[in-house]
Amino acid sequence: MMQKILKQTPTTYLSIGLAVMLVIIAIFQMSASDERQKRLSVQNIASSHVNLINNSLHQALSSTYPLAAMVRKQQGQVTGFRDLAREMLPYYPSVSSLQLAPNGILQHIEPMTNNTGAIGHDLFSDPSRRKEAHIARDTGILAVAGPFNLVQGGVGIAARLPIFISNNNTESFWGFSIALIRLPQLLKTADLDTLVEQGIDYELSRINPDNGAIDIFASSAGALADDSEVFFIDLPNGLWKFKASPQAGWINYQTILLNAIVGILILVLFSSLLILVTYLRTNEKRLNLALKAAKQGWYEINLHNGEIIIDDNERASLGFAANDSYVDLKSWQQHIHPDDYKQTVENYKQCLKTGETTQIEYRRQTANGSWVWMHAVGEVVEWDRKQQPKKIVGVYNNITRKKQVVGRDKLRSLVLEQLVAGKQLTTILTTIVTHIEELSPFSLCSILLMDREGKHLLTGAAPSLPDFYNDAVNGFAIGPEAGSCGSSAYNKSRSIAEDIQTDPHWRPFAQLAEQANLRACWSDAILGSNDKVLGTFAIYHAKPCLPSDDDLELISAASKLAAIVIERTQFNEQIQLLSRAFKQTHDGIIITDADQIIVDTNPAFSEITGFSRDDAIGQSPNILNSGKQSPQFYENIWNSVNEQHHWQGELWNRKKDGSIYAELLTISTLLDEQGLIQNYVGIFSDITQSKQQQEKLNLMAHYDVLTELPNRALFNDRFNQAIAHSQRTKQQLAVCFLDLDDFKTINDQFGHTIGDQVLIEVAQRTKAQIRAEDTVSRQGGDEFALLLSDIESYEQCELTLERILKSLSKPYLIEQQQINISASIGVSLYPADHGDIDTLLRHADQAMYQAKLAGKNRYHLFDHQYDQQIVQKNHRLSEIEQALTNNDLQLYYQPKVNMGTGEIFGAEALIRWIHPEKGLIPPNDFLPLIDGTELECQVGDWVIHQALQQLDSWQQLGIKLEVSVNISSYHLQSEQFLAQLNDALAMHPSVNSQDLQLEILESSALGDLNTISRIIKICQGALGVNMALDDFGTGYSSLTHLRNLPVNTIKIDQSFIRDLLDDPGDFAIVDGVIGLADSFHRNVIAEGVETTQHGLMLLILGCEQAQGYGIAKPMPAIDIPTWLARYSPNQQWIDFAKTAQSVTESKQTLFTLITEQWNDKFIANIQATPDHIQHWPVMNHSHCHCANWLSRAEQEKNYEPTWRKTLYRIHESYHSLADTIQHHYLEGELATARQKLPELNTLFDEMKSMFTTH
User: Is the pTM of this model over 0.70?
Assistant: First the structure.
């Protein structure tokens, strides 16, 4: 056969050579591909384990930071180290112990079991460890020592974090926080054995910084191949190297040899190609097997058509749908997370540009809408003719779990640091929520807290949920159908709602969830260490979905971490509360150990005893011993404490300055876990002052402290004795009540010290004027009571009272000050006035009040008739108070108009009493009774509230009026007036405060004008209320009031308006008031306008605003709208106001009004019967209105002298005839008088005609 082949033509040789070359080329390509695939596989598999080592190592290293933060926060104190270390160790499985080394010497280790041998170890003196200790201290950063043999046994590494304490803006070295990490446990998390199982050898080593030698501290049994894959792990002060290579090596020489033999033997291109294809398929299966074992998948991207081929191994676990074996590049990119899209695309483009291997981590959305983390490695493996990338091949794997583990570890460390730093609970819970949301994209998280009752859930942290949703669920009750959170808290279990709208637990909240765009909710109960529900943790999604295993693990981890935070926060709050109570209580607290040596005191201890905390610590409580109690006393105390674990009582102790004080002391014991006494706690308060006050009270029980006179109690006792004596002897007993006149002035002028001295001397003078068997008692303040026994007659009593008054009225010389004072005394005589001590004193007090009213410095005997009047008045006041309670009072409203324009601008509120039996009672029949009483203020407040309510009601009807109410001076000056007025206005915010006017009666006792002026200004400025001075002109000093009181309006009293046309005096007053109001820039209004003539007269004088029966009577509020609709302005007033009159014309109109009024009234009287005449007009022609008009005309020279004389003559004739007619009428000659009336009218017409001819 061979010879035949050799005999072939050169073409045959060429074919055989070509076949050999093709086989050789194919063999080398397969070998290179196999090596490349192996390297990619080793890189991907080994990198995962290296990452696990790196993450586990750095997680373990991070455990030193919370300890350092605790020491820095406590300024070098290590209180709470053991509790914190115990909480941390379960979360750091590779850390065997946590340590603190002040100044580099190990002193605190947790746990202590098997670690006691390390206590006292000096890190700076240990040759194998001191280098890293010096590096950490000098650089201020964490340093890692080892691996080395541990003092506790075994091999490990030590992470040392230097701690520096700030003091006066300088940093001083404190020591180290140390995490002892055992290498076997650290490497166990990397699961390196699986590398060997997958056919990969490995070696973990470091370069020894001291001698440069390579220290290998972990490796597989097999030897590494040359050109191994190398990975580096960075440490703060060193570098670890991790090598990996296939156990069979990178090149399989047996396969090469076999392929060569087969290729040479076949010598057929087709057979060689078939063998190559078969070989490639075998390698593909091997690669798929390796990828499957590593939980990885491969992909291939055709850059020309954008097609992506994905293998079947891990398609489902990575979140691809069943039909996703072939996808296009555009679709792939659309499922990349928005936050990762830019970086992913940039890496992809860089790979195309350079052709180098690229790797990236990014998130991809799966078919069910969830997100998974992917790690992808790829490179360009094929180019087109233009040397442009044509195909990319790579591997990928799901690293979601790894990301979550790292994220949870990071979150755990951050939360622990925040706990140590003392952050607020809300801040820490928000940290948990936001980090979980980062780990679970497009999720919304919530933590709800259980209330103290364990029945309702309160919002803890939910920053991403809508505010209205958080507000709605805040405080909702837990229950079996209270949503996912409410049911999980109720059942202490997990509650999953795939679709909120169809879940039965969510039925009450489905609509709320829909408004918040929430469709799925997965909630878990947050359980404390005692299985107590602390709250709930929940994850929401905008679409219906179920949680994956990773999601459930994430929820569980978040719930457990939240439980630690909540319990620790509650514990800290309790500790802080106890600390504040210890430091801020006013009772002294002293704590000793079991040997009764002081170990702590609170600030109140030092304030009470004078011993500082440093003075007391280390001492025995005997330092307070006063010596006033016997040793047996103290022995009994300690026997009681040791037997009953409690003692309470009073004792005397000594302060540091030697002074003695009394204290109320309670001693209790604190027991350890075995029930043995560990500490004694003493709580005491200084009761020295209480003791002294008790002694004073014993003295004050029967005598007045200031005057040393008998007090009320002793006075009552002596009264009973005096009554018994009076009944035996049949003699009278005088009960007297003495009150100093204007004693307050003495206190205000000279001070209370001199006032007390006056009281003492008053007591002495009074006592000197009565007999030994009589009694004088101080009742309080400047009030005294006397018992005068054996009174044979009232005259005898009068002599004693006169002596007392005369003695008390003499000048007092106190501290070089001469003081004059008098007293008023009321007397009640028993048995004529029969009653008990309270009745007789009350009667004497009433009599004393009458003495004061009579002028003071006198005495007055009790009058039974006056007492009955007081009783009747009180009964009447009670009726009025009941009327206020029963809503029997009602406001009537009298409109106010502008006579010149016809405008209705306001109404005055007038109170009426609608008695259920007596009917309507006018205000003058009951308001005077409440003058100066608290009831007057109550009624005034009621009126203001009613008026504002009515303004509000009218405003709703479109009625715009100003309402004025009357306020008494007493009410205006009451303490609560301004506050109550402000509250009343606040209750009616829609009412403009300027629509309310307060009218102050000038005729009332206005009191302190400065105070009233201040109140008026506050009402006007701060509250916006208008003020008016009512009944102006009826009080004293009206001009003073007008000048000092800044009111807006002056109201002329109706008594002047009523007789304006008849009485020249009233006319002059009204004219003057209007002029004053104009001068002081005040508005003016007249009340009591009853006729058209009244209005015209006021318009002439310059007053346009008015109210009165001539406009409208007061009416109930319900009638006002009807009256407004029917109101027709007085046309005469409007016409007169529109007419521009000169001064002379106005005076002529005035003359016509007053003369017509006089003439009409006189004729009406003559025509009437004598019994119907009330009063006559002014008959004296020199004092009537006309005479005043003529006198003014002469003064002002407005008319010609001849004309004035003629008018004066006619006026005099007119009055002369009127006098004659009145004389006949008064003489009973009615007919004669009435016959002369035509003649009188002729003269009247003649007077009026004078103006038409002028």
Answer: no
